[in-house]
Design a protein that fits this description.
Chain lengths: 127, 279
């Protein structure tokens, strides 16, 4: 799952949101790393709805403009949980390695993990 | 309407009309909400994402038609392009017969008759996408007969695609292609032929030399947006190829491109959508 997709799903876990609210929430949750462009958001929503992960739950007209809210489906919640578990397991591998390295060479500080931009998050603009 | 909204609407045209009707207002509202106060044009990042999003929806939507329906539309469009092209060739012949004493290029028709026939053919090919079958089928049949009347030998090659078009139109539901102006794709190859028929037109020669490979390349790449168009260009190129008067310059200009257009056109028509549209 790509990072923008992950944060779109994550932004909906507390309840349905409309387009701009998803963009804001995804930016908050990712610490400003995932700044979704409008076109990217709706492409992601199209795809996620097609996969059955999100669904249109509410539609209203605010100041003459259509506002549609989207929510997570049961499948979407499960996919998000599975991805979170996968990421957590991947993080544990690194943390365990660091802990083992620190234990075997107590005088040597563990090298800091280099900041690396994922090649898969092409639509992500670093803040 | 603010400048930002106006420019946002312009960018939304990257999406197909049906998608815009359903989601355009919502996407525009989000775009306006997400823009910082005082911004008058969408940022480069937003513009790029909207253009890419529109392209993705176009690709997904045209692949939702069943293969047979896609094939039928591609054949109809290909025949329509070939017919428009044949009509434009008649205009060129009419000019050459009226102005230039070129031997060996006589079509057997008078210039006035050729122009009338060209106008009728182009009208029929254009109406095909708007008018009901009860209008277009008789008109196409009339054009086919009129093409054969004065000179059966010269008219046969031009009449065959018109007859095929009439039969295919009569056999199925009224075709609806999103961009009916595509029938005018017959224009670039006709300009190339103009260069052969009217060799003293220096400017036409220069344009034609560049136009034909560009035309084929565009037809080839168009499969990204709509593979029916690529298949249509492939069919039209095939018809052009078997037309002996026209084939030699086309062969010189791009045999590899023609083959690529044919292969990609046919192959991509069989692609099925991987993901359905938003519910």
């Amino acid at each position: 799952m790509r990072e923008p997709t992950y944060f779109v799903l994550a932004s909906l876990q507390d309840g349905p949101l409309h387009g701009y609210a998803i963009i804001k929430r995804a930016a908050e949750l990712s610490g400003g790393r995932v700044l979704l462009a409008t076109g990217t958001l709706y492409t992601a929503l199209d795809r996620l709805a097609g996969e059955g992960y999100v669904a249109l739950v509410h539609e209203e007209v605010v100041q003459g403009r259509v506002r549609r809210s989207y929510g997570l489906t049961a499948d979407g919640t499960a996919a998000l949980q599975a991805e979170a578990e996968r990421l957590a397991a991947a993080a544990r591998v690194v943390r365990r390695g660091q802990a083992a390295g620190a234990a075997s060479a107590p005088g040597t500080p563990a090298p800091a993990a280099p900041a690396r931009r994922s090649s898969r998050s092409r639509h992500v603009r670093p803040a | 309407m603010s400048p930002l909204e106006r420019r946002g609407r312009l960018l939304l045209r990257a999406y197909p009309a049906t998608y815009r009707q359903e989601h355009g207002a919502e996407i525009l509202a989000t775009l306006l909400e997400a823009a910082p106060a005082g911004q008058t044009r969408p940022s480069l990042r937003e513009a790029r994402a909207l253009l890419a999003g529109g392209l993705r929806v176009r690709i997904a939507s045209h692949r939702q038609l069943p293969t047979l329906a896609s094939l039928r539309l591609a054949v109809l469009l290909g025949l329509a392009i070939a017919v428009v092209q044949a009509a434009l060739l008649r205009v060129i012949w009419a000019v050459s017969e009226a102005r230039l004493p070129l031997t060996g290029l006589r079509s057997g028709y008078g210039p006035g008759y050729l122009l009338l026939l060209a106008a009728l053919t182009m009208t029929a090919a254009t109406l095909l996408w708007f008018a009901p079958r009860r209008v277009t089928v008789p008109l196409l049949s009339f054009v086919a007969v009129a093409t054969l009347l004065p000179s059966r030998a010269a008219g046969l090659g031009a009449a065959v695609p018109v007859v095929a078009l009439a039969v295919l139109t009569a056999a199925g539901e009224a075709p609806r292609l999103p961009r009916s102006w595509l029938v005018w794709l017959g224009l670039p190859p006709a300009v190339l032929v103009a260069d052969v028929v009217l060799p003293h037109w220096g400017a036409v020669a220069v344009v034609a030399a560049w136009l034909m490979p560009l035309y084929l390349l565009a037809g080839l790449l168009w499969f990204v947006v709509d593979s029916r168009v690529t298949a249509a260009v492939a069919l039209q190129q095939g018809l052009l190829w078997i037309h002996t008067d026209v084939a030699p310059p086309v062969r010189v200009n791009g045999p590899v491109l023609i083959i690529a257009v044919v292969v990609i056109g046919i192959a991509t028509l069989r692609m099925r959508p991987r993901r359905p549209q938003r519910v």
